[in-house]
Every structure is written in structure tokens, then in C-alpha cells.
Amino acid sequence: MSVERPRIGVVALGRPTFDVPFAEEILAKAWSTLESIDAELIGQPELLFDADAVRAALPALKEQQLDMLLLLQVTFTDATMTVELGKQIDAPLVMWSFPEARTGGRLRLNSFCGVNLASHALSRNDLSIDYVHADADSPAAKEELEVYARAGAIANDLRGTKLKLVGQHPDGFDACNFNEEELKSKFGVEVDRIPVIDFINEVKELPDDVADAPYERRAKDFPNLAELDQDATRKTLKVYSKLRAEADENNYKGIAVRCWPDFFTEYGCAACGALALLNEDRTPAGCEADMMGVVTSLTLQHAAQGSVFNTDLVDVNTEDDTVVFWHCGQAPIDMADTDQPIQGTIHSNRKLPLLSEFALKPGRITMARFSQGHGKMRLLLAGGEMIKAPLAFSGTAGTAKLDVPVKQFLDTMINEGLEHHTALTYGEHRPVMRAVAKRLGIEVVELT
């Protein structure tokens, strides 16, 4: 089982009083659709007609952790065994029903009515389902099932995840607060902490040559690397080496760092470039010790199977309906617009390297944030298009058109109390994120 290849338990339900040959034909097509999904299937392509047959299938379903339990409601059945399966199998429950032709003759399957009956019975037992109603060979059904399976895998993967927190957030940055107990209960995530000065002292003790490999890596990307302050640049890369080693040794899936003022004042470099490299490694990293920003980035990275950028929304233009997403210089380099300059730079306020500098490439984007606005955990989502535009501000930045007018977006964003950090990735990944939120019992707020 993995986020890339979820594990799906499958049970096909039927009754012999309906058209069994037709039901078996539907099941064969549905199973073929399931086999085209990149997933591990637990179950058999056979109709289970009674309680004894369903009970016989239970041990195989219970012995492995499932990301999704899929009930194929091939014909109408009563809800007895559906409720039993829902109670006994610790996995999100999805039901698939099948349309049939309106011939004026026999109702051969009555599949959807079985789902309707089951969903009511499950609701009376505090159990809920997702459902798909589509033909057995429907591409849309396959897509929906992939979303639900991926969401279950992401929720399972988050349980037991360890993250690293270096330092505390700056004073007045309430957006970077987090409730450790809620993080554990909602997401299953644990946090290891270290004071920022202790971490910096550990970096200072490292030999200087730990910066050699990341320096060579960055030199391939930044033609001006040798023109920057070399002492400060190599310090940033030592910070990266330490964070990378910590993540590898302790299986940290993400890292939040109090970047300022300490790395500037106590070590003489910017942490931003180290965080950029971690983001490129697919170890989401965030500044200002924003742990919920890292949790959002990690979840979105799983959904997208691609890199993520923890951003600030820094500029809006209601006349041309554009916004600018920016951060000092920590975007992963695969987000760069290769038609424009890509280079290293210094922090615009502190005047020290190492930061990345480039404009973000055009393309469809998904924005997300597990938000604590109004004192409750919610997932805020938005979609839009990053457009081809010159670099708006030094560092890493992109100009975007959102799916709704900017004024409407701003009104909703401010009213909902959105934090100043949001996670950004390329592609349309809101369906998976919505499904993950449902798995975690978290309300979704649509910003666009």
C-alpha cells in the first residue's frame, strides 16, 4: 500500500432473484475497469448472494489496512451486510451502482435503490459513504474511484507521519500557531522540536565540505552562484545539508523553520535557499515555523504527486483580475518559467544569500490551506491559472488569474480568516483534497 498505489478492498453484492447473467456481465466490466486503476485489489470478481458468502470474504479484507472499501451494488440487496461491512472494516466506504436501460420491461438490477437503502441504514449507524453511479466501463467512474482511493491512501499515509519544527514562530504571527493535540488527533501527525539556536549551533559544528554537493547541484541551476557572497551561500547550503540529514535519519516528511531573524543574525545567511532545495526533494519545507503550512503542503504534494510551494499572496489587482503569489526564494525549481532568468539572489531586506529567483511558469494551479480561522480546522481551496508574466518581485513569484473575480476572492478570503501562507501546486487537485478532508472529518471552504 502507498499513496501512489492504494489498496482497495472490493465486495460485489447481488441477489439471485434479479437477472444474474446480466449482473455477472456488469461485474466483469466493472472488474476490468478496476484492474485498469493503478491499485492493489483485495477481493474476487464474484457475486456474493448471502450473508455467509460476505462473512467468508471478511478475513481477507480485515487482515490488511485498506485505503478504501468498495462495494459493488450490482443488484438490489437489503442493507444488512453492507452495515456489517461498514462496522467491521476500518476503511472509507464507497458504493458503486449501475444504470440500466429503461426498456419498459423487467427491472433487471435495481442497483441504485440498493445504494439508497444502504446509505440510509449506514447513516443510522453513524456511518457514511461516497458513491459512484455510472456504467461499469465508464471512464468517469474510473476517475472518481481513483480520487477516493488516493484520498484514503493519503489519509492513511499521514497517520504516523513525523515532522520537524525548528524554533518557534515570530511574535505576532498567529497564523503559524498550531494545536499539537489537534494535529495528532485529526491527522495522526507527530512533531519533533528543537530550539532554533540549538539547531544553528549544530550546523556550525558541521565540516564545511558538507556544502560541496549541494553547491555543485545549485551551480548547475544558477549561473551567477559564484558571484554571490560565497561564505553566506555555503552557510545556507550547510543548513540544507543538516536538514536533509535530519529528515533522512529520522524519517521526517516535512520541516518548518523559524527562518528570521535568527539565521541572519546568528549565522549570517538566509534559510530560504535550504528550504527551496528541500521542496525540490519533495520534503515540504516552510518558513516562519508554520507547521500547518507544512502539513498542507505535504497533503497537497501527495494529491498532486508533484512539488509544492508555500506562498504569500502579496499583491492584487482588481482592474486586470490578477494576484501575485510570492515568497522570498523557496519555490522548487521545476516551477520556474524557463523562458525567463533563473538565478540565485539575496534576501531583499537582509541582503544575504542564498535564495532562488525566478518567475513561476504558466499553467493550471491549485491553492490549499488547512486553516484555523475562526477557531476551527477547515480546508480552504482555490483554483486558477498561473499566467506568463515577468517576475513581479525579487525572489520566487508568479502572477495568476483565479477562477472568480479578484474582489469576490478577497471578500471570501478575508471573511473566512485565511492565513497569509497557502500551499500552491500545478494541476487541478481539488477533488482529491476535498475527499481527503472528508476522510479527516474536516469542513471544506471553496474560495473560488
Report on the structure:
The protein has 448 residues and is α/β, with parallel strands linked by helices. The chain has two domains: 7-158, Rossmann fold (3-Layer(aba) Sandwich); 162-446, L-fucose Isomerase, Chain A, domain 3 (Alpha-Beta Barrel). The chain contains 14 helices and 19 strands. It has helices at 20-35, 51-62, 80-88, 111-123, 139-158, 180-187, 196-204, 212-221, 230-250, 262-267, 272-280, 291-304, 406-416, 430-440, and strands spanning 7-13, 40-42, 47-48, 68-73, 93-97, 129-133, 162-166, 190-194, 252-257, 285-286, 309-317, 322-327, 343-345, 355-359, 363-371, 378-387, 396-402, 421-426, 443-446. The radius of gyration is 25 Å and the shape is elongated. One of its GO terms (cellular component) is cytoplasm. Keywords: Carbohydrate metabolism, Isomerase. Residues 360-446 form the L-fucose isomerase C-terminal domain.
Which residues sit in consecutive blocks of at least 5 with pLDDT less than 50?
none
Chain-averaged pLDDT: 96
* Main sheet specs: 6 strands, parallel
Structural class: alpha/beta
Number of helices: 14
Name given to the CATH architecture of the largest domain:
Alpha-Beta Barrel
GO molecular function, one term: L-fucose isomerase activity
Protein name: Fucose isomerase
Domain L-fucose isomerase C-terminal: 360-446
Organism: Pseudovibrio exalbescens
Summarize the structure.
With 448 residues, the chain is an alpha/beta fold.
What key attributes describe this structure?
6-stranded parallel beta sheet; Rossmann fold; 23% strand; L-fucose Isomerase, Chain A, domain 3; alpha/beta; 448 residues
